[in-house]
Design the sequence.
């Protein structure tokens, strides 16, 4: 059951689920949309009180996310800063030839683009490079995480998503990974993989779900700090 409320001046999506024992608040990247997951029989008034207590923390996280979104508007020109696996690089754009190519050195990403390139075409080419980088690292991590959890999906795919770092379709056993994870430290990618794999055992974010994540990835808190999730 899904409903929408404005609590403390903030639009909140409330999702009531069966087999959920606790309340959870999530501030979703990139723009800070807020969702609350609750047990299906949890009183609405108590949900409201719970959210109101968290308003200062929610507001802080939303402001930080929205600031990052504003800063992240890129034109893919020389001098911009871009992240890869948690490390900051300066972009150098060279217009020559008729194809796109990305070359990374110690602290710089050199981006060769055609003279006729546009912001949109440069963004597409750059994202395709991110996709290749993510695939390169993802393949090895999948093997590692499958061995660690004794779980496996039928398919792992990459998608540029706005509000989730990963999703799991339990029926088809398909896991989607957000393209933007190529910008985050590798620990974040591993955490998302473990998180989504555990959904193959436990559909909802129950106590058992969190216990399994803890079991398979004890250092999850190190990665979680990059996700701006409030509980």
Sequence:
């Amino acid at each position: 059951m899904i409903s929408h409320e404005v609590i403390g001046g903030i639009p909140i999506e409330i999702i009531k689920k069966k087999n959920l024992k606790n309340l959870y608040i999530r501030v979703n990247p990139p723009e800070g949309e807020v969702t609350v997951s609750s047990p299906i029989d949890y009183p609405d008034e108590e949900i409201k009180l719970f959210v109101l207590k968290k308003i200062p923390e929610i507001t802080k996280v939303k402001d930080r996310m929205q600031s990052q979104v504003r800063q992240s508007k890129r034109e893919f020109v020389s001098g911009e800063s871009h992240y890869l696996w948690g490390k900051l690089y300066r972009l150098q754009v060279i217009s020559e030839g008729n194809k796109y190519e990305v070359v990374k050195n110690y602290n710089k990403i050199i981006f060769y683009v055609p003279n006729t390139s546009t912001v949109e075409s440069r963004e597409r080419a750059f994202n395709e490079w991110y996709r290749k980088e993510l695939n390169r690292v993802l393949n090895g991590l999948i093997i590692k995480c499958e061995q660690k959890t004794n779980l496996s999906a039928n398919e792992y795919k990459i998608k540029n998503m706005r509000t989730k770092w990963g999703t799991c379709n339990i029926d088809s056993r398909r896991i989607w990974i957000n393209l933007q994870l190529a910008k985050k430290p590798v620990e974040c990618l591993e955490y998302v993989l473990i998180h989504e794999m555990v959904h193959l055992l436990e559909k909802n974010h129950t106590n058992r779900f969190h216990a399994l994540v803890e079991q398979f990835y004890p250092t999850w808190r190190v990665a979680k700090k990059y996700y701006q999730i409030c509980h």
User: Anything to note?
Assistant: The first helix runs from residue 44 to 71. The chain has a mean pLDDT of 88.
